[in-house]
Amino acid sequence: MPTPSVTDRINRLKKEKNAVILAHYYTRPEVQDLADYVGDSLGLSQEAGKTDAEIIVFCGVHFMAETAAIISPRKKVLIPVQHAGCSLAESVNGYELKQWKEEHPEGIVVSYVNTTAEVKAYTDICCTSANALRVVESLPPNSRILFVPDKNLGAWIRKRTGREMELWAGDCCVHQRITAEMILEKAAEYPEADILIHPEANCSADDRIHSLPQAYFYSTAGMIAHAKKSPKKQFVIATEMDTLHQLQKDSPAKEFIPVGDRIICGQMKKITPENLLEALEKEQYKVTVPAEIREKARLPIQRMLEL
Ligand code: 13P
Ligand code: SF4
After folding, report:
1. Ligand 1 pocket test target in 41, 61, 243 with most atoms within 8 Å of CB
2. Against a cut of 0.90, is the pTM above it?
3. Which residue ranges have their beta carbon within 6 Å of ligand 1?
4. Could you give the CA distance from residue 59 to residue 23 in angstroms, rounded to a whole number?
5. Which of 78, 198, 227, 252 is the least crowded, having the fewest Cβ atoms under 10 Å away?
6. Does the beta carbon of 38 sit less than 6 angstroms from any atom of ligand 2?
């Protein structure tokens, strides 16, 4: 827990500087509690687009802060640590996509928002785990589609929509640890529980999981909404562990069981109340995207947000 003085100083600086703190559900619980808005990738992008604060302090990984800087170029976007990376975002680069586009000029590139600005600059439309099905279903039938970079999310979309897509071979090192066997084990141990699975999980296209009537696939915000409105009392959660913080806060009388005990994104945990305070004090570390890339990268994000 942060000391009262850290919390007070953060709140005072936030007001003085007209700053807003945005945090992803995978950040530390104490960071989530300091944020003005906690959300999934889609919610955070939407919030970055509509805030009228002058400074956005982004508690998440670098590509998320970069997305905020693309959407809100006139705002000062800060990230409290310099090297909060993402294995998924790092698995594809702009050069590789440029080559694919040259080879397939009629092709459509759909990028998960977990990508760098450079990759977005070669993308036709972005998606998040919350709107991926809608985005792919909106594309003209029979088009040639390349989905980057998450092979698990891509396989899940393919299964759900029946759309043919070429899949990039990237994965999230955290969700890749969530196997079908882990889910089946928990289903046997907690037969009354609903099982909420992130589509980045390794097992998201596994038929054994799709045939479980109590298994649902959601983005993190989708899981929270499901648990809130469900009459069930127990839920197995197959995503990053600190999502349980918000789940438990919203539904204190319900029980949430993590699918495994090592489903942790170390990059998200780099943000602490102390470096968040320092970010506000020193206005560091500023995240910028060169204008030429920003202009190109804005279009696929905008197309997604307009859907
Ligand atoms: P969502 O925020 O879309 O649920 O994605 C999870 C994730 O891995 C973000 O890095
Ligand atoms: Fe990247 Fe996975 Fe961490 Fe999300 S959970 S930031 S996809 S490494």
Report:
1. 41
2. yes
3. 40-41, 114, 128-130, 172, 200, 219-220
4. 5
5. 252
6. no
